[in-house]
Amino acid sequence: MGNCSAADADELLAERGLGGAGASAGLAGPGAAATLVGGVLLIGAVLAGNSLVCVSVAAERALQTPTNYFIVSLAAADLLLALLVLPLFVYSEVQGGVWLLSRGLCDALMAMDVMLCTASIFNLCAISVDRFVAVAVPLRYNRQSRRQLLLIGATWLLAAAVAVPVLCGLNDTRGRDPAVCRLENRDYVVYSSVCSFFLPCPLMLLLYWATFRGLRRWEAARRTKLHGRGPRRPSGPGPPPPAAAAPPEAIPAGPPPQARRRRAKITGRERKAMRVLPVVVGAFLVCWTPFFVVHITRALCPACAVPPRLVSAVTWLGYLNSALNPLIYTVFNAEFRSVFRKAPRLCCCCC
């Protein structure tokens, strides 16, 4: 999202010693070189890690679970960010924060930035909804991929709806400074921040709290049931155990086999995949909360002095999240870790 505001455009140019025809001088400084190297490394890490996530899920049947379908959608958002947003952002940062390209390209950059960031958090929300349904009403939960694909499609459509006003002329205001690429309309900044972050985050956290609370209750009930079972009948000759002498009506009837199978599906591979989700959500909040707090503060308080370096730092931190998710899967998910070890073979098979 826009990394400069109208109020601090002149301050940005003055602070970084850039302006007019001398703006390209920022390329010669050591800070610009470090920015370029860091940007290239970040883009490479995002592309490599998230491509590996997509290839792994596509090639390994063990990873093709409903939760991982959403993770692939999240990885796709990160890949598009690395291809469509990060190169132009790094270019602007190397120039000292000065925008030297066309206004139309700036508007496209802002729209894609808003949409992809919104798609990321909407995908996390979709995972929370899907997992809540799987735990709260397991007998009605449909594991077929069609429902998950419809939910993923809805997240992308909603994300596009949040971003499309930028492409419809909202950013083309009178007195616009062509040297700064930003979201011009402060009302839209508040609207997009609320829709993309401040509303979805509490909903997502509430759903995860309810999901893991229900999961703990289910596991406690399952352990109680297992501990309450009688001893198994020995295989050799001899008298039957005392429990066998009980009349049939005294033996409690267990749940039907179909219900047992449906409940057991929650305790398999999908439950293992759920363990990584709190870490993914936590990393997203740590990386993006500072950006949105600074972003909406500048919109609601134009007179507040927000240093451009702080704006740049929180923007870099937000983009860093796109490179963290594959590392999280590697550290906290044993199945992803085992598949990632076979990465060379996966790449050869895809080629």
TrEMBL record:
<dbReference type="GO" id="GO:0014059">
    <property type="term" value="P:regulation of dopamine secretion"/>
</dbReference>
<keyword id="KW-0807">Transducer</keyword>
<dbReference type="InterPro" id="IPR002185">
    <property type="entry name" value="Dopamine_D4_rcpt"/>
</dbReference>
<keyword id="KW-0472">Membrane</keyword>
<keyword id="KW-1015">Disulfide bond</keyword>
<keyword id="KW-1003">Cell membrane</keyword>
<dbReference type="GO" id="GO:0051967">
    <property type="term" value="P:negative regulation of synaptic transmission, glutamatergic"/>
</dbReference>
<comment type="similarity">
    <text>Belongs to the G-protein coupled receptor 1 family.</text>
</comment>
<feature type="transmembrane region" description="Helical">
    <location>
        <begin position="188"/>
        <end position="209"/>
    </location>
</feature>
<feature type="transmembrane region" description="Helical">
    <location>
        <begin position="32"/>
        <end position="57"/>
    </location>
</feature>
<feature type="transmembrane region" description="Helical">
    <location>
        <begin position="109"/>
        <end position="129"/>
    </location>
</feature>
<dbReference type="GO" id="GO:0001591">
    <property type="term" value="F:dopamine neurotransmitter receptor activity, coupled via Gi/Go"/>
</dbReference>
<keyword id="KW-0675">Receptor</keyword>
<feature type="transmembrane region" description="Helical">
    <location>
        <begin position="313"/>
        <end position="332"/>
    </location>
</feature>
<dbReference type="InterPro" id="IPR000276">
    <property type="entry name" value="GPCR_Rhodpsn"/>
</dbReference>
<feature type="domain" description="G-protein coupled receptors family 1 profile">
    <location>
        <begin position="49"/>
        <end position="329"/>
    </location>
</feature>
<dbReference type="GO" id="GO:0007195">
    <property type="term" value="P:adenylate cyclase-inhibiting dopamine receptor signaling pathway"/>
</dbReference>
<feature type="transmembrane region" description="Helical">
    <location>
        <begin position="69"/>
        <end position="89"/>
    </location>
</feature>
<keyword id="KW-0812">Transmembrane</keyword>
<dbReference type="InterPro" id="IPR000929">
    <property type="entry name" value="Dopamine_rcpt"/>
</dbReference>
<dbReference type="GO" id="GO:0051481">
    <property type="term" value="P:negative regulation of cytosolic calcium ion concentration"/>
</dbReference>
<keyword id="KW-0297">G-protein coupled receptor</keyword>
<feature type="transmembrane region" description="Helical">
    <location>
        <begin position="149"/>
        <end position="168"/>
    </location>
</feature>
<feature type="compositionally biased region" description="Pro residues">
    <location>
        <begin position="234"/>
        <end position="258"/>
    </location>
</feature>
<dbReference type="GO" id="GO:0005886">
    <property type="term" value="C:plasma membrane"/>
</dbReference>
<dbReference type="GO" id="GO:0045202">
    <property type="term" value="C:synapse"/>
</dbReference>
<dbReference type="GO" id="GO:0043266">
    <property type="term" value="P:regulation of potassium ion transport"/>
</dbReference>
<dbReference type="InterPro" id="IPR017452">
    <property type="entry name" value="GPCR_Rhodpsn_7TM"/>
</dbReference>
<feature type="transmembrane region" description="Helical">
    <location>
        <begin position="273"/>
        <end position="293"/>
    </location>
</feature>
<feature type="region of interest" description="Disordered">
    <location>
        <begin position="225"/>
        <end position="262"/>
    </location>
</feature>
<protein>
    <submittedName>
        <fullName>Dopamine receptor D4</fullName>
    </submittedName>
</protein>
<keyword id="KW-1133">Transmembrane helix</keyword>
<dbReference type="GO" id="GO:0060158">
    <property type="term" value="P:phospholipase C-activating dopamine receptor signaling pathway"/>
</dbReference>
<dbReference type="Pfam" id="PF00001">
    <property type="entry name" value="7tm_1"/>
</dbReference>
<dbReference type="GO" id="GO:0004930">
    <property type="term" value="F:G protein-coupled receptor activity"/>
</dbReference>
